[in-house]
Every structure is written in C-alpha cells, then in structure tokens.
Amino acid sequence: MNEGLKGTEIVVKCLKEEKVKHLFGFPGGQLIPLYDQLYEETDIRSILVRHEQGAAHAADGYARASGDPGVCMATSGPGATNLITGLLNATMDSIPVVAFTAQVPTKAIGTDAFQEADTFGITMPITKHNFLVKSTDTLSWTIKGAFKIANTGRKGAVVIDLPNDVQQKRSKEYHHGEVKFAGYNPSIVPNPLQLKRIAQKLVEAERPLILAGGGVILANATEDLRILAEYLGAGVATTLMGKGAIPENHPLSLGMVGMHGRLGANKMINNCDVLLVIGCRFSDRTTGWGLESFAPDAIKIHCDIDSSELNKNIPVDFPLVGDANLVIRDLIKFIKKYEDVKKDTNIWRKRVNQLHSMCEECETVKPNGSKLTPEIIIKTINNFLDDNAIVTTEVGQNQMFAAHYYITKKPRQFISSGGLGTMGFGFPAAIGAKVAKPESQVLDIAGDGSFLMVCQELATAMSEDIPVVVAVLNNSFLGMVRQWQELFWDKRYAGTKLGTIPDFVKLAESFGAYGERVEKASDIEKALKNAFDSGIVSVLDFKIESETNILPMIPPGGRVDEMIGVGRCRHK
Amino acid sequence: MSTQIISVLVEDEAGSLTRMSGMFSRRGINIHSLTVSPSEKEGMSRMTIVTTGDEREIEKVEKQLNKLIEVVKVNILDKNTSVVRDLCLLKVYADKENRAEVIEIANAFKSNIVDISIRTITLEITADPLDIDRFVETMKNFGIKELFRTGVTAISRDVEKKSGG
Ligand SMILES: Cc1ncc(C[n+]2csc(CCOP(=O)(O)OP(=O)(O)O)c2C)c(N)n1
Ligand SMILES: [Mg+2]
C-alpha cells in the first residue's frame, strides 16, 4: 500500500511536466488533499480566489494572455458548480483551460453524499472534454490527456473530476510520453489542392477582404496574416475575438465587424469580391441576421481548424480545414508564385484607406468641454497605456465601447468574453493576465453592473499582490440592456436601473485597494497615472451619463449592412 | 427529410453513450432509435443511430460526432447497400376464435411464435424495420397488448468487384 506516488503527488508531478506555474483555486473538504500537497510547493504558485467563478475566469485570462493553458481547481459540489460559467466561457472562445474538481470518495458516488454533484454529467456539454478519474492508476494518463485535448486542435476547457480517495491513494502507474486517443487527431495539414485553388481566387480578386477571427490569434499567426494582407492589398476586418490579429493602426486594418462593428468594416463585407475568412465561426454577432445577405456577391473562402464550423452557419464556396498558422503560411507560399500576374489593386487599396479613415475621423472624438464620455475615457486610455499593455473588458456597453475605440496593436492584448458574453469576466481575467504577464500594464474596462458581480476578487488582487486597474464606466444602469429597452422596447427600463450603489471608491478602499472618482474629462489621465502609480489593485469610478448609447449598431434581426444610429457617421 | 442510419465506432469509456446522445439533444436532432453493442474491436462499441435529416443536416451530425474524443469512426450507411434489421417482440390478443388467423398472418410475415396463453400469442420477428411496421399495422387489427422493438442495427454489404472481361 505504501508503494508508488500518492494521487496528489502524481497531480503535482504532471503539472510540473506540463510546465504549469500558477493555479487559481478555492478549497473545500474533498480538495484538502491536493491543497495539502501544494502547501510547501515552491515551483507552483497557488492563488486563492474569493469565488470559484473567479478561478475559472482567471485561468482563462491567463491562457489568453500567455498562450499556455490556464489551470483552476475547486472542491466538490458547490465549488464545482461555481466553475460552470467560467468553463463554458473558455470553451465557447476556444481557450485552453484545465479544471480540477474534487469529488466525494468513489465509494460514496451516487449516494447523494454531502457536497456530491454529478460534475462529470454537468460539465459534459460545456467543455471540450471531461474525465471522472476512478482510480489513481489512470490519474497521470488522464491529466496528460486532458492537457493535450485542452491545448491542441480547437482548444477548450477540460475538467478532471478527482474523488477524494483517488487523490490520497498511491499508485506505481505513471504514464510517460504522449497520450494517444484513437479518435482524436488534431493536427490537420491543409489540403494543398484546395489551398492552390484558394490562392488563385485571391490573386484574381479585385476587391479582396480578409475577416480574421480569434483563431488567428490562438494559432499565433498574426504576423503572417499581416504579410498576407499586404501581399494581396486586402483590407482586414476582425471579429471581437480577432481584435489584435492585425495592428489596428495598420493602414489595411478596418476594425471590427458585426452588430457593434464599424460601419466601414460592415460595408466592406458586402463590397468585396473575394472574402477570406480565417479562424472565425460566423457567430450571429458577427454576421448579423439574414445570412443570405452576408457578402452576397463575394466568393467565400472559410478556413478553420474545426471542420464542423465549415458550412455550419454560412455556406461557402471554398471550405478548408486547417490550423490558421499553416493555412496562412501556405497561402503566402502559393501566392508568391503568382507574383507576375498581380492585379492592380490600387483602386481597392484607396477604397480601403478611405473607409478606414472615414471611421478614424469619426472616432477622433474631440473633447466636448469637460464632459466625461466613454469615447474620451477610452481614447485617453489608448494614449496612456504602453504598447505591451493588456486590456480586458466586462460585458455590455463598456465592452463594445472598448471594442470600438480601443486600438489594439498586438495579439493577446485585448481580452474579452465573446461567445458567452459573461458579465464579471473582465476583472478576474485581468488578474489572470497580470499573473501571466507581470511586467505588463493590465486594465479592465468595466461596467458598474459587471464589476459588482465579481468585486470580491479585489481581495484576491490585494492579498496576492496583483496590481490591475479597473476602469468602471459607471452609468448607474445595466447599460446595454437599457439601450435595447430605449431603442426597441419603448424606453421601459424594467430591471435595469442600478442607481448609485455602491460607492465604488469606498468599496475599493474597504479592501485596502486604491479608489478614485473621476467626473471631468481633464482628470482622466491623472487618475490613470495615480492608479498605476499606486502599485496596488485600483478602481477608477468614471461617472458617465446614464443614457449614452453605443452606435451605430445592427438592430436585432437586421442584416450586416443595415446599421442604425449612423446619424453621426459622415460618410454613409 | 429522410431516414438516415449512422453507424459509429466509439471507445468504451464511461459516459460515451451520454456524450453521444447529449450531442444530439444539444443540437436539436431527433433520435428515432439508438442501439449499442460490442464491436469486433476490443475496447470499442458500435452504436447505430437512426435519425432524420437532409444531406446537409446529416453532414453536420457526422462532423459533430467526429469531434467527440471517444468517436473513432462515423459511417453514414447507404440503405441500398446495407443490411438493416430490427427485432420486434409483440403480444397480441388471440383467443379460440381468431388464433388460427393470427398464426396464419404471423407465418406469412415469417415471424416466430415464442409464447401462447389462453388470451394472447407472443410473436418474434427480425426483419427490415419497414416490414416490421407493416407487420405491426396488421396485428393492430387483433389488438396489441405489448410491443417491444430493439431499434435498428445495420451493416454494410461488401460490394464484390466484377472481374473484368
Ligand atoms: C452574467 C450575465 N448576466 C446577464 C447578462 C445580460 N447583459 C448583457 S449586457 C448587460 C448589462 C451590463 O451592465 P454593465 O456591466 O453596467 O455594463 P454597461 O452596459 O452599463 O456598460 C446585461 C445584464 C450577461 N451578459 N451576463
Ligand atoms: Mg452600467
């Protein structure tokens, strides 16, 4: 019985082999063995969050900022169920997260024991894959398999449910080397014939447009994407998840498309003759509705690592399965061969520049006296932060203001909840990002409603010394829902008024954090400086008008080229 | 919309059946029948799923199934080149007066009598599901007391290549 490694020793050994340095977690009865194992561990830092949802989001933010899997852990029952939102959030945005959940001892499973939950059953539909480990003998195989699944192919969250006795028993079984699954082969080489056809279409195109999704960033293919775009003279629009796939100050960058995208970018979708879509799943927030009117005249090319995304939402002319990295690299190779047949794309380039500058112009908001507007706040943040800074967002108007106005210059520096749209993601994700990149400035562009959902993590940031800055765009409303009520529901503000509770400055101070209220545009920069200089987690309470809207937008049911609220867009 | 038979080879892992059926319900796809049995490969099971959908929908199902880690192979069976079978156990009311008639019809459908009581006959039939449908329809005339069907299982025929001449 005393032979081999204890289950928890196996966990730690595997974590080290996977080069895990940080764990975000929260303990409980069934998780005591693993916590105990980590107690004297110096190579792995265990960060105590104040709510398990924070652990999942922090692991997610860590993964997005670093490119390495994020790891979190929670106890059985309520601990595991508190992780759920965070796990689905990661899976929907294809972010590699590995979660350890404790479980009641194997003998007690099925008895409705104290804090027993069917974590395996509950997490099955919201993760990429999950495991219930029934014996310490299979533990190392499972953990290595979990990391492989989470971090290869189309990435996602993987849960490992660990019964208490599996953590404590000893086993001599230890899996060395790679874990193989008969039905899982994530490394797909793009089909060269299809690549050649696609390259030909791109070279022949007069008005090529690239739509880059989060897949380009996840595949670390952004540098090659820029090269490809420059070769083709193609404009590059991105989805929310694709922000940072091309420097947004690049002349070919058109910004974000979709429901709250830029007018120019949305127009271009229906203007181009060849649309190359890479690492994007055509979410309805990207395409709008009336799918037959999405780029109706364009030859559509769709490259994605997940074959089930091809022809799922939008039928395309040229589907191609493959990692964005390989696809783009090979496309460049093929296109180089066509150098001499290169068309004159000057007219199109001009049009790209024109559309680009048209939004630029609009977005160069001049300070309107001392009025504090989201535009001015985010523009000031733009100028204040350095080139390595990471911005996260909450969900709502704050997120869309950030997506619209924050100029992202590098990949993995704009972190936002796309698929799930989870309020309360941004702050714990910022904590995770700061842990991954301690040298970078990290700032969460937040809404008052969202931040309140996770503000307890101020305690985590204080006690673990993780100095991130939360910029609350405080409109005293659940602003985005209020905006819909204003525009589409007769201004009946049911359930959206938050009022001025709490006092965010005092809230911050009660945690020992830095807090400051900002009411004038001229004070924004000073406040940002104070916050970053404080060296501790900070909350800036920007008092903005209650009834500002983020416009233009595609109304629910509208098509990609039917934006409303374009009144102030000068070049309609 | 037509009936489709999907044959799936899966690794025997706890939960793989739930994962499969969960995928169908999550994507809003109906399952008519689902059978699970051992396969010729050790550690792997074969699931036969009958569903309805057009070509595009079935292609989506195939891709979603392939995405599941435990799924090793997915085959959409062509009904023209496959042997399709369903097993039905049926208890029908039959007394002195109509017992002979029930037996006669049962024989015509090549079904076996597996039990007889004073008021019922229990029949067993293994056939193409459409034949079973017709059998059941006919037996309804006598009144069906209980009906069990196993669900469809199917296997593709090996198409012999004609030797060239
Ligand atoms: C967890 C969660 N609950 C509800 C929603 C629906 N929702 C979307 S935006 C929004 C309002 C967000 O309010 P706030 O954080 O103050 O941001 P604002 O829109 O005011 O900038 C709500 C309730 C959501 N996205 N996430
Ligand atoms: Mg708000």
TrEMBL record, chain A:
Gene Ontology terms describing biological process: isoleucine biosynthetic process; L-valine biosynthetic process; sulfur compound biosynthetic process
Keywords linked to the UniProt accession: Amino-acid biosynthesis, Branched-chain amino acid biosynthesis, FAD, Flavoprotein, Magnesium, Metal-binding, Thiamine pyrophosphate, Transferase
Cofactor: thiamine diphosphate; Mg(2+)
Residue ranges of domain Thiamine pyrophosphate enzyme TPP-binding in the record: 395-541
Catalytic activity: 2 pyruvate + H(+) = (2S)-2-acetolactate + CO2
A molecular function (GO) term: magnesium ion binding
UniProt-listed CDD domains: TPP_AHAS (cd02015), TPP_PYR_POX_like (cd07035)
One cellular component (GO) term of this entry: acetolactate synthase complex
Record-linked Pfam families: TPP_enzyme_C (PF02775), TPP_enzyme_M (PF00205), TPP_enzyme_N (PF02776)
UniProt pathway: Amino-acid biosynthesis; L-isoleucine biosynthesis; L-isoleucine from 2-oxobutanoate: step 1/4; Amino-acid biosynthesis; L-valine biosynthesis; L-valine from pyruvate: step 1/4
Entry note: cofactor: Binds 1 thiamine pyrophosphate per subunit.
PROSITE patterns named among the record's database cross-references: TPP_ENZYMES
Domain Thiamine pyrophosphate enzyme N-terminal TPP-binding, first and last residues per copy: 6-120
Domain Thiamine pyrophosphate enzyme central: 195-331
EC number: 2.2.1.6
Gene3D superfamilies: 3.40.50.970, TPP-binding domain
PANTHER family: ACETOLACTATE SYNTHASE CATALYTIC SUBUNIT, MITOCHONDRIAL (PTHR18968:SF13), THIAMINE PYROPHOSPHATE ENZYMES (PTHR18968)
Family: Belongs to the TPP enzyme family.
Protein name per its UniProtKB record: Acetolactate synthase
Organism: Candidatus Methanofastidiosum methylothiophilum
Automatic annotation (TrEMBL), chain B:
Reactions it catalyzes: 2 pyruvate + H(+) = (2S)-2-acetolactate + CO2
Keywords: Amino-acid biosynthesis, Branched-chain amino acid biosynthesis, Transferase
Gene3D superfamilies to which the protein is assigned, alphabetical: 3.30.70.260, ACT-like. Chain A, domain 2 (3.30.70.1150)
Molecular-function GO term, any one: acetolactate synthase regulator activity
Domain ACT residue range list: 5-79
Record GO biological process: isoleucine biosynthetic process; L-valine biosynthetic process
Pathway field: Amino-acid biosynthesis; L-isoleucine biosynthesis; L-isoleucine from 2-oxobutanoate: step 1/4; Amino-acid biosynthesis; L-valine biosynthesis; L-valine from pyruvate: step 1/4
The keyword Transferase is annotated on this UniProt entry: yes
Subunit details: Dimer of large and small chains.
Assigned protein family: Belongs to the acetolactate synthase small subunit family.
Job of this protein: Catalyzes the conversion of 2 pyruvate molecules into acetolactate in the first common step of the biosynthetic pathway of the branched-amino acids such as leucine, isoleucine, and valine.
Record-given protein name: Acetolactate synthase small subunit
